[in-house]
Every structure is written in structure tokens, then in C-alpha cells.
Amino acid sequence: MNIVPLLVFAFVLGSIPFGVIIAKAKGVDLKKVGSRNIGATNVLRSLGRLPAALTLLGDMLKGTIAVAIGRYFGVGFFYEGLIGLSAVIGHNFSIFLKLRGGKGVSTSIGVLILYSPKAALFTLIIWLLVVLATRYSSLGALVSFGLLPLSMTLLDSKEKLPVALLMTAFVIIRHSGNIQGLLKGTERKIGKRE
Fold first, then answer.
1. Half-sphere exposure of residue 109: CA atoms within 13 angstroms, side-chain side
2. Which helix (H) or strand (E) holds 173?
């Protein structure tokens, strides 16, 4: 079948800025506080645990639902992954935020939960270990997704490696500013309020 409509739907779904919506309900403009990012880490820093948890859940579900739709239509592993990545791109370049958005970590995890559960679990464990050791969410994302192509190959299938490589590239590119902050020692630690 023609997957273009599914890619478009996933992009629009991914564009829904749950962090912005939840923060607005609390009277906060998320794009003007903390790191100005729309993801769960900045929501945690700016609004607390419950709003952050809701943001995390919403952002993850965007990726999971996108892959589920591809699987429902039987498009195959490669296109399932592309549809999931379309949701990630939508999150990163939201049509509701003038093509601005987050960094795609939570939505990428949501994609992996259905696309490759074992790789998702490995990625989450590595992220958690790095964050517990350093309190840098960005470093956890960079290390865990940097290892994703390896974990995908060892724990799942080489057929899914192209999607894993693209996902890793997106995460690294979106964290270019964080990489500079980590190198300069100016990166904000997780949970640190402004």
C-alpha cells in the first residue's frame, strides 16, 4: 500500500506538543522557561514530577501509536520504522510550533517499545544508568542511542539496523547544543530548577 498517508499522519501525530499543552494548562509558557525545550526533562525542571510524567507518557505514545498503525496495515519492518521516525521528526519539527520542537528521545523510545522491545529495554537501562551516575539526561540519551545500532544488531535484527542508525543520527544532531554544554561544563543537570 501507499505509505505516504501513514507517514503524514505519523508526522502530524508526532507534532502534538504535549509538554507545551500541559505547561499551558498550568499557566506556564514552556518555550520561555528552563532550557526552553518542550520535552519531559524541561517540564520536570519547570513544573515538577507529575506534569513531566504526563509529558513523557504522551510523547512516548506518539511513537508507539505510529508504529502500531504501520503494523496494523502490514507495511513491514522497514516501513514500520520509517513511520515511527516520521513521528519523531514531527516531534522535533512540530507543525503546531512553527517547525520547532523537542529532541525526540521520548518519542524514539516509544517507537522502540513496539518496533524492538529488547533494544528499547537495553536503551532505557543504559539511559538510566548514565543519568543515575551523572544526572545528565542529555548524556544518557547520547550514550544509550549511540549504542542503539549495536543493541539492535545483537538483540533484534540487522533488517532494522537502517532505522536504528537514522534514529541515532537524529538524536545526536538534536543534541548538538547539549554536546557543547557537556564539553564546556555548562550543561544543566536533570531535575535542576531555574
1. 22
2. helix 161-174
For CA atoms 75, 77, 81, 82, the dihedral sign is: negative
**pLDDT tens digits for range 174-188:** 999 999 999 998 988
State pTM to two decimals.
0.92
H-only helix segments in the chain:
4-15, 18-25, 40-47, 49-72, 77-92, 105-115, 117-134, 137-146, 148-155, 161-174, 176-184
Q: How many helices (H) and strands (E) does the chain have?
A: 11, 0
Environment class of 72 (CB within 10 Å of its CB; exposed 0-12, middle 13-18, buried 19+): exposed
| Annotated domain spans of the chain | 4-184
Of the CA atoms within 13 Å of residue 184, those in its CB half-sphere come to 9
Our CA angle for 26, 32, 33, nearest 5°, is: 70
